[in-house]
Amino acid sequence: MNFNNILTEYDNGITTITINRPKKLNALNQETINELHHAFKEADLDEDTKVIILTGSGEKAFVAGADISEFADYTIEEGEYLAANGQKILFSFVEQLSTPVIAAVNGFALGGGLELAMACHFRVASDNAKMGLPEVSLGVIPGYGGTQRLTQLVGKGRAMEMIMTAGMIDANKALDFGLVNHVTTQDELLPLCETIANKITKNSMVAVAEAIKAVNASFEEGINGYEVEIKAFGKCFGTEDFTEGTTAFLEKRKAEFPGK
Predict the structure, then answer these.
(1) What is the pLDDT of residues 136-175, one digit of tens each?
(2) Cα distance between residue 44 and residue 19, in whole Å
(3) Is the predicted pLDDT of residue 255 greater than 80, yes or no?
(4) What is the DSSP string of 88-133?
(5) Rg over CA atoms, the chain
(6) Which of the residues 9, 35, 47, 135 is marked catalytic?
(7) Among residues 94, 81, 102, which one has the least CA distance to residue 184?
(8) Which of 35, 95, 115, 194 is catalytic?
(9) What is the rounded distance in angstroms from the CA atom of residue 62 to the CA atom of residue 27?
(10) DSSP SS3 for 171
(11) Rounded CA separation 227/96 (Å)
């Protein structure tokens, strides 16, 4: 599929998706959200793709927010649909992918940009990154899962302060809060993400996918995460990856997982 607002590149088991609207600081408009949905879906279905890295073009912004000009005159009903549809086709969609997704946060990640980064399975930031949810300064609240995921990641008190003040935090503060896993230089951001991705690809991707499902279950209302973990654990015993992994361990050799 041809895209107007994003770039995709595959190399050695890693698909890198780059939001490419530098003149708009990679702001999310509806076309970009739809393109991201298709790009993530294609990468997730690609058997050769083991890990997805998401980043923004340029050195200023990962995603500076949503494209406000698109919805400034929306009605209540249109606003609700905007949030519901966006969460369905992109934010929750990314969170629930079986392929690991790493956000390489290379600058501003504000509003919908931070919400997109938080939907990824974990985040690595450049030292110039700034993150925040400034929606209340516009008379609205985060609508792409920000109130929920930020609270899960940094705790209720910190989430309340960040949302209510509409302020930004820098990369080191984000690291301290647990919002990002690592902070590095702009030049080393993608190489570090690729290093982490390569560590992931050496493991059973079948097991990794089950682990993602089990971890996500702990945040789903009405779902017992322990029960999901037990079933996922048992399911692994029926895979070729489990046979290879345990056999390789007992034979004291490196496992060569078939991904089945």
Answers:
(1) 999 999 999 999 999 999 999 999 999 999 999 999 999 9
(2) 17
(3) yes
(4) IIIIHHHHT-SS-EEEEE-SEEETHHHHHHHHSSEEEEETT-EEE-
(5) 19
(6) 135
(7) 102
(8) 115
(9) 9
(10) helix
(11) 18
In DSSP terms, 18 is beta-bridged to 7, 55
**Which tokens is 134 given?**
């400034």
* Residue among 41, 45, 85, 86 nearest 65 (CA): 86
Is residue 20 a contact partner of residue 6, using CB atoms and an 8 Å limit? yes
Residue 210 is encoded by which pair of tokens?
């089950």
**How far apart are the C-alpha atoms of 73 and 60, rounded to whole Å?**
28
Pseudo-torsion of CA 18, 54, 32, 215, nearest 10°? 170
Q: Are strands 130-132 and 108-110 parallel, antiparallel or unpaired?
A: parallel
Are β-strands 130-132 and 168-170 bridged in parallel, bridged antiparallel, or unpaired? antiparallel
pLDDT per residue as tens digits for the range 211-220: 999 999 988 8
Question: Nearest Cα to 105, choosing from 148, 43, 58?
Answer: 58
Tell whether pTM > 0.70.
yes
To which residue do tokens 């945040």 refer? 219
Question: Mean per-residue pLDDT for 30-36?
Answer: 96
Residue 13 tokens read as 């088991």
Average pLDDT over residues 248-252: 94
* Catalytic status, residue 135: yes
The Cα 109–Cα 125 span in angstroms is: 10
Q: Residue 71: pLDDT above 90?
A: no
